[in-house]
Amino acid sequence: MTPPRVLLADDHPVYRDGLRMMLDSSGGAEVVGTAADGAEAVTLAARLRPDVVVMDLQMPGLDGITATRRILDEDPEVGVLVLTMHDDEENVFAAMLAGARGYLVKGADQTQILRAITSVAGGDVIFGPALAARVTQYFVQLAGSRPAPGSFPQLTVREREVLDLIAAGLSNRQIAERLVLSPKTVRNNVSTVFAKLQVADRAQAIVRAREAGLGR
Asked: Per-residue pLDDT averaged across 159-180, rounded?
C-alpha cells in the first residue's frame, strides 16, 4: 500500500520540521512539502496535489480555517487533518464546516497522528480521543432538540439510507459493505446526497442529518 502523500502547514518551524522528520522516518506517510502559513498551504496544495494536508489553525496572514476552505474549493478530494493547540468547540466545528475530515490536538503521539492521516486519506472522519466524546454529545443534543422525522423528501429511500449511515459515522467502504453495494455506487449516492442537501462535504452532511434525527 502506497503511503499517503502529505503536505504540512504550520508556522512554527521547530514543530513543523520535527513532524516532518517523524513522518518520514515512520514510513507511514510521504511528506511532499511544508508551508509556513495558510496562503503558502493553498498554493502548494494546488501544485503538489497531496492526499492529506495537515493543517494548523492559527497562522499569520491566512488562517487554517480559510486555507482549508480554499484548498477544498480547488480540490474536494484532498483530506484536511487539523493539528492544532486549540480544542475549543468553536474551532472544532469551524474546521468541520470548512471541510476538514480530522481534528487532533498537538500532543497527540506518533501512532495517533499516523492513524489519523491514514484514515483521512481513506475518506474517513476522525477526531482525537479528547474531542470525540464532545463532538458526539453535540450531535446528540442537536438530534434530541430538533427532530425532523419527515425530513429530506428530496432524497430517495436509498439516498436516505446512505445519509443515515454517513450520520452514524460509517465510511464509504463500510456503507458499501452494509448495503451490499459497490464502492462506486456508494460514491455516486454520496455525491447526489450532498448535491440535494446543498452541502459541500461530509461534515456538513453529518450536521444536517443529525439535526434531523438520523444516525442514531
From this structure: 90
